[in-house]
């Protein structure tokens, strides 16, 4: 089946075309999602929703802007990113601190000594209390600027300013090393 035939069939809501589309592209599109979402069950759920979105929004596809696969891959990619940013996912990932994740990677790669050798914790001590709090939650516990702002009732602009100031202090101290 040619791409034009697939597009025409999808726009006509032809069942055989939808089945053909699934057979031909499902593995590649699922791979796009799996690279972003590692949990198999969640990735399957996102793929299912994205595939339905593809078939329902086919009228918005414009051939002049790119190939059909690229358009479908973008829908899958955006759906996966949206799912990662959702409250459901962000709440579960907050329970796993970055320390656990980093320790797991360090033990696998042997970089534990290197991380300790550069003295990250010592550099953090040089920050003021507000900066240290912000850096701890954003970089070590995985909060986004917005999540931190909402959770701790700190204006978003203040969060960003403190991050910027803390990074300047850390950069200055790293240059001395």
UniProtKB/TrEMBL annotation:
SUPFAM superfamilies: Sigma2 domain of RNA polymerase sigma factors, Sigma3 and sigma4 domains of RNA polymerase sigma factors
This protein's record includes keyword Transcription regulation: yes
UniProt cross-references to Gene3D superfamilies, sorted A to Z: 1.10.1740.10, Winged helix-like DNA-binding domain superfamily/Winged helix DNA-binding domain
Family annotation (CDD domains): Sigma70_r4
Superkingdom: Bacteria
Keyword entries, A-Z: DNA-binding, Sigma factor, Transcription, Transcription regulation
InterPro entries assigned: RNA_pol_sigma-70-like (IPR039425), RNA_pol_sigma-70_dom (IPR014284), RNA_pol_sigma70_r2 (IPR007627), RNA_pol_sigma70_r4 (IPR007630), RNA_pol_sigma_r2 (IPR013325), RNA_pol_sigma_r3/r4-like (IPR013324), WH-like_DNA-bd_sf (IPR036388)
Domain RNA polymerase sigma-70 region, first and last residues per copy: 21-87, 126-172
Keyword GTP-binding in record: no
Classification via NCBIfam families: sigma70-ECF (TIGR02937)
Family that this chain belongs to: Belongs to the sigma-70 factor family. ECF subfamily.
Name the UniProt record assigns to this protein: RNA polymerase sigma factor
Organism: Algoriphagus aquatilis
